[in-house]
Design a protein that fits this description.
The structure is a single chain. This protein has a domain of 90 residues: Collagenase (Catalytic Domain), CATH 3.40.390. The protein is built from eleven helices and six strands. The strands form two sheets. It has a four-stranded mixed β-sheet with strand order 1-2-6-5. It has a two-stranded antiparallel ribbon with strand order 3-4. The longest helix is centred in the C-terminal third of the chain and has 19 residues. It starts with a helix and ends in an 8-residue tail after the last helix.
């Protein structure tokens, strides 16, 4: 890490959090009330660094406020509570739309068939260093925790997956292409989810997780934090792997 960045982070973390920020966090970031005291403070520290180092931009006519930026930074900080991961190194910009937006897609199928067009999306991670989010979907998720959905967790976990190659060793059909414990256990959970989704059986992970191993990881991350007890009962092996990776145990939070 460059010395200037190291010293600036130290300086930022010595400054007291503005009272207005404290008020917003306690009112607009419900997860703060589940965290143990030391993690509450760490979340605030992580958020301060993210706000300073990342570019937040409103798109599609959205007037991005400081409150919106703080909420996004706080939830992004949950995934790096115990491991800063260089504060999502490589991530440059967080682009926020007022609601779902149209994005171009390009799909190639067997036989050389190509499909192109536009589709509605609520968020996405661009490997080029950008994350795109829908503020409407963020608000919906924050106050509907029973669904287990959280767009911020979802898209930021895609970045971590891309950075560490977490699902690179799992095929679309759920075959483990590596023999390490992580890949074996996550692939097994993904295969079970594919079967449950195909047969209409209950799964604590949403059906969207059957789209690909990468989507399964990100949807599972949402549930890991939002509905941890359900995931631990339903897929204890997967819960253990996610707990080891993120170095947190949401079941133990109050």
């Amino acid at each position: 890490m460059p010395l200037f960045r190291y010293l600036k982070r130290k300086w930022l973390l010595k400054k007291p959090l503005p009272d207005e920020w404290e008020d917003i966090i306690h009112k607009k970031v419900p997860v703060i009330h589940r965290l143990p005291g030391h993690l509450q403070e760490r979340l605030k520290q992580r958020a301060v660094i993210l706000i300073d180092e990342k570019h937040f931009e409103g798109c599609g006519g959205l007037e991005l406020t400081g409150e919106m930026i703080l909420v996004i930074a706080c939830y992004a900080s949950v995934l790096i509570l115990e491991e800063p991961a260089d504060y999502y190194g490589g991530l440059q910009s967080i682009l926020v739309y007022p609601e779902d937006y149209l994005a171009p897609f390009h799909e190639e199928y067997e036989g050389g068939i190509v499909s192109e067009g536009y589709e509605s999306r609520s968020g996405e991670y661009w490997g080029a260093g950008n994350i795109v989010l829908s503020w409407k979907d963020i608000q919906r998720d924050l106050y509907s925790v029973s669904t287990g959905n959280n767009l911020i967790y979802h898209e930021f976990s895609h970045l971590l997956d891309d950075r560490y190659g977490l699902t690179a060793g799992i095929s679309a059909e759920g075959t483990a292409l590596r023999d390490d414990e992580w890949t074996q256990i996550v692939a097994k959970a993904y295969r079970r989810h594919l079967r449950d989704t195909a047969t209409g059986r209950y799964s604590v992970v949403s059906a969207y997780g059957a789209t690909s191993p990468a989507e399964f990881f990100s949807v599972a991350t949402e549930v890991f934090i939002e509905k941890p007890s359900g995931l631990k009962r339903y897929m204890p092996g997967l819960y253990s792997m996610l707990s080891a990776f993120y170095r947190i145990d949401p079941v133990s939070w109050r």
